[in-house]
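Fill in residues.
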């Protein structure tokens, strides 16, 4: 561990050793429970498991702040190397859990009542930052990171804030199952009830909640198989597309089962597995994470029925909300009436270095435009002398089909 800055009220230190990250487990989750950012995707279990299996060539960069021996803030970061295939030409600091596994509501974890000093400490830590900061999937209206971005903007940083996706959410507070159904659109309510009635007429219908480690292994294997089978005729899915991803899902669900967070359901029709839904119950929130169903039962809408029954289970066990997580798929809004807006904050230090990073460092269309400009400027005279009409554009970036990037606006 190295000290980043000595502060009047405590120390800001940088942890780069994964062993020290592992040792933070108990302190981490205690701090998270005392933070406004408290959610599944910021738990030590989620982020440390992500680091073990999916961090790739990143370098660990946890910034931790203490007041005496008490942990008061953690910025759960890693340094991402350049990624030339995505036109990310320079390293950047980003949140652990970024990309691949769909971690929503990423943020800096700050003990309640310590936000002001955490802002000051991080601003000091990054005063001479050699890197750009790129924080994705933050809650745009309710996150410490947004407050921090405004603070940096006041100190001359350039802040770019983009809306990139939404997480539809069902409010369950105050509802019974009957009153929630009554709040749905009449066509959707009728469709769900008719599909469930028809299934019960034809099959012995059971929705089993996984309780044991052996059941977890079997159900997770079924989920992977069913999800893959469902998507193979649609060009495939990358959800379970690597050994690292499979290892992550296996270990994080195992940890969640031990902590009582796992909500892994199997819908069985006459004893046959027809659908599997993976969710997590953390605090007052049930998070729908992934699902798969047997295509041979597609006409019976087993996916629709499974979701409805798990919403009922969440309500009956006292969850305040059912979060369908990122993605604006139309079926989600048949169940939900509001959504959290997710954004990406890109932060560039004052001066020439920040301007250069801003111009070339974040990939996508701006890099493409800039490289075209540099090439044409450098080669213009030579190309003209050799009869070239123009420079061919061979650069491109593949968009994330799950993201709906909106306009970029400056905070400052």
């Amino acid at each position: 561990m190295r000290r980043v800055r000595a502060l009047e009220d405590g120390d800001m230190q940088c942890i780069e050793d994964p062993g020290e990250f592992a040792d933070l487990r108990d302190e981490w989750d205690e701090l998270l429970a005392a933070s406004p950012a408290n959610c599944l995707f910021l738990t030590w279990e989620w982020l440390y498991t992500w680091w073990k299996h999916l961090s790739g060539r990143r370098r660990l960069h946890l910034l931790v702040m203490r007041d005496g021996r008490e942990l008061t803030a953690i910025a759960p970061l890693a340094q991402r190397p350049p990624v030339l295939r995505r036109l990310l030409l320079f390293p950047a600091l980003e949140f652990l859990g970024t990309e691949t596994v769909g971690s929503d509501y990423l943020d800096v974890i700050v003990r309640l009542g310590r936000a002001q000093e955490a802002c000051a400490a991080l601003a000091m830590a990054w005063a001479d930052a050699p890197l750009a900061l790129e924080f994705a999937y933050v809650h745009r209206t309710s996150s410490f990171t947004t407050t921090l971005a405004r603070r940096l903007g006041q100190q001359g940083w350039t802040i770019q804030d983009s809306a990139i996706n939404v997480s539809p959410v069902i409010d369950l507070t105050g509802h019974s199952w009957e009153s929630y159904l009554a709040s749905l659109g009449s066509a959707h309510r009728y469709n769900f009830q008719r599909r469930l009635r028809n299934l019960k007429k034809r099959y012995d219908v059971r929705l089993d909640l996984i309780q044991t480690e052996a059941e977890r292994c079997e159900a997770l294997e079924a989920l992977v198989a069913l999800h893959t089978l469902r998507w193979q005729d649609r060009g495939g899915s990358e959800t379970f597309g690597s050994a690292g991803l499979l290892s992550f899902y296996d270990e994080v669900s195992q940890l969640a089962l031990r902590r009582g967070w796992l909500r892994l359901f199997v819908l069985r029709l006459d004893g046959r597995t027809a659908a599997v839904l993976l969710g997590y119950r953390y605090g007052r929130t049930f998070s729908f994470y992934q699902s798969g169903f047997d295509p041979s039962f597609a006409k019976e809408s087993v996916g629709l029925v499974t979701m409805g029954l798990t919403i009922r289970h969440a309500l009956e066990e006292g969850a305040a909300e059912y979060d369908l997580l990122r993605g604006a798929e139309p079926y989600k809004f048949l169940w939900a009436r509001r959504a959290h807006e997710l954004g990406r904050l890109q932060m560039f230090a004052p001066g020439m270095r920040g301007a250069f990073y801003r111009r070339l460092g974040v990939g996508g269309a701006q890099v493409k435009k800039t490289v075209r400009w540099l090439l044409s400027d450098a080669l213009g005279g030579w190309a003209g002398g050799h009869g070239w009409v123009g420079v061919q554009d061979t650069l491109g970036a593949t968009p994330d089909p799950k993201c709906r990037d909106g306009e970029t606006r400056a905070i400052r």
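Residues 173-319 form a domain with the Aminopeptidase fold (CATH 3.40.630.30).
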